[in-house]
Design brief:
Blueprint lengths: L3 H18 L2 E2 L8 E2 L3 H7 L2 H32 L6 H13 L2 H11 L6 H8 L14 H26 L3 H9 L4 H12 L1 H16 L3 H6 L11 H10 L4 H29 L4
Antiparallel strand pairs: 1-2
């Protein structure tokens, strides 16, 4: 019971309240909540902004989860050495993860300034014209993804590094004696044995991509022209800018259902592809 009480108060209770609010019309201030049934969901399914936000959310998820995992694995392979300086490099790479996202986003907003920002200054070294970055709807989401990748890749690296350190050395030595090269050993031994870590990171990073908010709010506020408005940011705008709590709650319910669906698919795939030692 001591463990169940916080679960009821801080998770199941608010979750049930969100479901209830999604069937009402409320503006945070009126004393009464008007029951409207499925009207909020009907409006959501006919709202082009919802489908645009859903598309941006999918692009953000694919553009962040896969590069973070691949980048983290590559860095872990590079850092998996006994060099005395490797610890310093690991600390530098991991440090963005423990830096507040708001502070990181402010600094990167300066870097992406089209006139005086360092990003366009570096592009000019190669004769490339400056990019609007956060002011250009074609580049704004890419800029957000760059910041997300830079901040999170060190976190993924730590998990992969631990997994690589726990690999059975006798198995790798046996493969080497049998004539397996570095690539074959990596493909047929290392990757299967670190698949539990890959599975864990895939689930956690996917959920984190659905919860991304700070960098979007600081850098673009969902713009320009909705090009960086995810479902979570659409929820924020509906609730705290338009004060349409019912519509916002319906967006929250959709996010919850997506999380449940993705988690279920991940576990089904994990049963077939994850190899536990």
């Amino acid at each position: 019971m001591p463990a169940v009480i916080p679960l009821l108060v801080f998770w199941l209770g608010p979750l049930g309240y969100i479901f209830y609010l999604s069937f009402t019309d409320w503006d945070f201030m009126s004393p009464d909540k008007l029951f409207v049934g499925l009207d909020n969901y009907r409006y959501l399914l006919t709202n082009p902004e919802f489908y645009q936000a859903l598309k941006v959310t999918a692009l953000f998820g694919l553009g962040s989860v896969i590069p973070i995992m691949v980048g983290g694995l590559l860095l872990a392979l590079l850092m998996n050495s006994k060099l005395r300086t490797s610890g310093i490099y690991r600390a530098f790479i991991f440090s963005p993860w423990v830096t507040p996202t708001v502070a990181v986003s402010i600094v990167w907003s300066w870097i992406f300034q089209p006139d005086v920002g360092y990003a366009n200054h570096v592009l000019s070294w190669f004769g490339i014209a400056g990019i609007g970055w956060l002011q250009d709807s074609h580049w704004a989401l890419i800029a957000i993804l760059i910041v997300t990748l830079w901040k999170s890749v060190g976190w993924a690296m730590i998990f992969y590094l631990v997994a690589l350190r726990n690999l059975p050395s006798d198995l790798l030595e046996a493969a080497s004696i049998d004539g397996a090269g570095a690539w074959r050993s990596f493909r047929h031994i290392t990757l299967p044995l670190i698949s539990p870590t890959t599975f864990f990171l895939a689930v956690i990073l996917t959920i984190q991509s659905l919860q991304a908010y700070d960098q979007i709010n600081v850098m673009t506020q969902g713009g320009p022209a909705g090009s960086t408005r995810t479902l979570l940011y659409l929820y924020y705008q509906s609730a705290f800018e338009a004060f349409n709590v019912g519509e916002a709650s319906s967006v929250a319910v959709v996010i919850i259902l997506i999380c449940v669906l993705l988690s279920g698919c991940s576990f089904l795939i994990g049963r077939k592809m994850v190899h536990y030692q």
